[in-house]
């Protein structure tokens, strides 16, 4: 199955709110880093950890989720 956005790829990507930025924009890199770190931590937790370690990683994941919300607020001015 193919998915088309009909916006073309000309080296740009869309942000929330409709703005288009180059794919190498630092914001896109930052969003990806936060998302990938959260995903890796999820895989680590799924492997089975001691309860204390799992609890600590859960707190870090919560902080990363909150960071994503702050990044959204910075981009859009919305809360």
What's the β-strand tally? 2
Which consecutive residue ranges, at least 5 long each, have pLDDT under 50? Answer: none
Gyration radius, rounded:
16 Å
SS content category? mainly alpha
Overall average pLDDT? 86
Proportion of beta-strand residues = 5-15%
Major sheet: 2 strands, antiparallel
Distance between the termini: 36 Å
* SSE order, one letter for each helix or strand: EEHH
Biggest sheet, spatial arrangement of strands: 1-2
Using the alpha-carbon principal axes, give the shape: elongated
Number of DSSP helical runs = 2
Q: How would you describe what is shown here?
A:
It is a single chain. By secondary structure, the protein is mainly alpha-helical. The chain is about 60% helix and about 10% strand. The protein has 2 helices and 2 strands. It has a two-stranded antiparallel sheet. The protein is elongated and about 45 Å long.
Descriptors:
79 residues; two-stranded antiparallel sheet; 2 strands
Task: Summarize this structure briefly.
The protein has helices spanning about 25-45, 50-75, and strands spanning about 10-15, 20.
Q: Strands, helices and their partners?
A:
Blueprint: E1 12-14, E2 20-22, H1 26-46, H2 51-76
Antiparallel strand pairs: 1-2
């Amino acid at each position: 199955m193919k998915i088309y956005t009909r916006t073309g790829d000309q080296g740009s990507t869309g942000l929330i709110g409709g703005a288009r930025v180059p794919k190498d924009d630092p914001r896109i890199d930052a969003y990806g880093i936060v998302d990938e770190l959260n995903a890796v931590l999820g895989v680590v937790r799924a492997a089975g950890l001691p309860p204390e370690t799992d609890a600590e990683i859960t707190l870090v994941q919560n902080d990363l989720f909150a960071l994503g919300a702050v990044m959204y607020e910075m981009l859009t001015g919305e809360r």
